[in-house]
TrEMBL record:
Residues 1-34 are annotated as: Disordered. InterPro entries: LEA_2, NDR1-like. It is found in: Membrane. One of its GO terms (cellular component) is membrane. It holds the Pfam family LEA_2. This is Uncharacterized protein LOC103701379. It is a single-pass membrane protein. The chain crosses the membrane at residues 41-67. Its main location: membrane. Residues 106-205 form the Late embryogenesis abundant protein LEA-2 subgroup domain. One of its GO terms (biological process) is defense response to other organism. The gene is LOC103701379. Keywords: Membrane, Transmembrane, Transmembrane helix.
């Protein structure tokens, strides 16, 4: 009960105690000092404990909020091929040349209550482990629980870029091209205006293009997020 009262009026008690104990003569103070010091100590300890408790609670709230930042989810909505053209036997140094446009229609979903700012996205198109073209998507912001589109068009001009043109000739003869796209985008969620949480999202898609009609026969994607 007395501890409770100390808690409620620590400042008033301290202010009332201090002048009287200072003005009193040494004899009386020697008998009163220990209890008043103990009381001051209790008040001080109480305030310190309360302050520490408040700081701990605030830190826990911040940590929980920041750790609750969920990973953005990247989705490949569709991949399409346009303007697929190829020539064979044009010359001995480049016996085959192939041009096409890869349109990768992807999006990033922000599952958080805080908005996510995304930087420029990069999409590389690979054919047999070699980069055949690169496309960039614009930066932007995905609001809370919103989806951010990252549609990218990549022009592929494959001639000298080919490691072994015979592979391409073989694939064209078989009527199927196996391609891979790798899309990367970095983003940042801002919590409490000052705490920033970074996330890098990467998605690779492997797909097979039917050369005759430019349709996608088979597609599989996997993604990786680094918070
Ligand atoms: C591919 O594009 C390049 C440059 O635009 C052009 O020189 C080449 O003839 C094209 N090849 C085909 C097969 O259309
Ligand atoms: C495109 O061609 C492939 C193989 O030639 C075939 O399997 C596929 O059904 C065709 N798709 C369309 C939409 O015509
Ligand atoms: C995507 O492909 C790139 C290049 O081949 C590779 O370095 C990366 O680890 C792959 N990422 C995923 C998520 O598979």
């Amino acid at each position: 009960m007395s501890a409770d009262r100390d808690h409620i009026t620590p400042l008033a008690t301290a202010a009332a105690d201090r002048p009287t104990s200072d003005e009193e003569d040494p004899n009386t103070t020697s008998t009163r000092r220990p209890s008043s010091r103990r009381r001051r100590c209790l008040i001080c300890c109480g305030s310190c404990t309360a302050l520490v408790a408040v700081i701990v609670i605030v830190l826990v709230i911040i940590v929980l909020t920041v750790y609750k930042v969920k990973e953005p989810v990247i989705t490949m909505n569709s991949i399409s091929i346009k303007n697929l053209k190829f020539k064979t036997g044009s010359s001995l140094t480049s016996p085959v040349s192939l041009n096409m446009t890869v349109v990768a229609d992807a999006s990033v979903k922000n599952p958080n209550a805080a908005s996510f700012r995304f930087g420029k996205s990069t999409t590389d198109v690979y054919y047999r482990e070699r980069v055949m073209g690169v496309g960039y998507g614009p930066p932007g912001t995905a609001g809370a629980h919103k989806t951010f589109p990252i549609k990218v068009t990549v022009d592929v001009i494959a001639n000298q870029l080919l490691a072994d043109p015979l592979d391409l000739i073989g694939d064209l003869a078989a009527g199927k091209l196996d391609l891979t796209t790798s899309t990367k985008v970095g983003g940042r969620a801002t919590v409490f205006l000052i705490i920033k949480r970074h996330a890098d999202v990467m998605m690779n898609c492997s797909f097979t293009v039917a050369v005759s009609n430019m349709s996608i026969l088979d597609q599989s994607c996997n993604q990786r997020v680094r918070l």
